[in-house]
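During the reporting period the student researcher (J.K.) took over the structure-prediction task from the postdoctoral fellow and processed the backlog of single-chain submissions. One of the processed entries is reproduced below for the supervisory committee.
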Amino acid sequence: MKSRRAKLAALVLPLAVAATTLVNVPTASAASCGASWSNKDTGYGVISYGQGSAPLRSGPGEGCKTVVRVYEGTILYFHCYTINSAGNAWDHVRINGTSINGWIYVGNLDSRGASKRC
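J.K. obtained the following structure tokens:
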């Protein structure tokens, strides 16, 4: 018969491994969060309807800091796009009527997004 300590270790160890796995999710590096961009595009689009909102980030990746949440229907002016290390397209945009700008995942847009690469 297993001792109490062995039983406890058998229960706790898988939880510790699972927690470590969840905590060690890869994030964008500091370099990618400071990605360069320029205003090359004249297009615009909106956050897809039915989505609610999407984060506008400091860089082209999920690990980059959220600057602000952008709500469906908000007009965004496209500057340019990039493909991040995960292979996802991100647009650098500015929110209509503001000087707020940042990166948004193209899948959150109602269109293909920017047509000019950064």
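The committee noted the following: Residues 11 and 97 are 55 Å apart (CA to CA).
J.K. will present the remaining backlog at the next meeting.
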